[in-house]
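To the team - S-adenosylmethionine complex, inputs and output below.
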Amino acid sequence: MIWDFPYDSPNAIIALLESHGFAMSKKFGQNFLISSSARQKITDCLQPLTGRRVWEIGPGIGALTTLLLQNEAQVTAFEIDHGFCRILREEAFPNEDKLILIEGDALKTWHSIYGQEGVPDLIFGNLPYNIGSICIARFLESQCLPQRMVFTLQKEVGERLGAGPGSKAWSTLSILAQIDYQIEQVSLIKGSAFFPPPNVDSVVIRMEKRPQPLVKVAIRELFLQLMDDLFTQRRKTVRNNLLHGKAGSRHGKELVLQALADADIPESERAEKLGFEELLRLVEAFAIL
Ligand code: SAM
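Output:
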């Protein structure tokens, strides 16, 4: 039987936590989504769910988990708060065989679950602010790439994921994400839709896997290394960032400048202006040095 808890009610949430003798923790970014329409919108983005293997990062007390289970998904949920885990296990979803709860820091636990279960069909979560970008970057760097990922994130992190060249938000995170995914902002969620309300707005981001990555596997490592160099200091030119980075120490000044010339990129350009086409030209120029 599905737990029928009034997730839109801050009073009910407080009473539940008090009945277990604990409170919410700021350090774990615990802001519950108390808008049923926002929760429904997120669930709609995940469809079809029936029979799908879904990872949920930070289920809290199960506001979204319950919708997944109602939709017959097979859920693996990663939650750091031992008190919430007790509520999920003992009160919300006892005897629920479609839910596996992984207790602990998701950044530490996910990799062994990945080793055991492989890539899930979907990853999603209303991510705590402090681990949003690092969590997504870890999945991407480890090539744990489900067909779709849907995250509720601080607006600024969502903007970085979906940014394009020329924008201030265009960064290594945008590039890392866009190599394998098309990114779409599905909706904006006001701070007032959470309890307690954070002082920033959030966005729901849907990431849909590309049929082919934008960067070939053979040059992926070199590509990512060069991106680290290029974006080390945004205000510096590509020339200076490369010369002071790994590329400079590996190849020396002359070859770095030759690669820039071969790729037809002015030495005085800034990385934030370069799109995938130019970046790929540059990586290919380095690859043949
Ligand atoms: N999913 C719930 C909702 O939408 O109402 C709660 C979302 S709340 C923003 C973030 C959740 O992530 C909290 O339950 C928090 O305890 C959990 N959390 C924070 N850091 C975590 C970590 N490193 N690993 C796993 N869970 C974490």
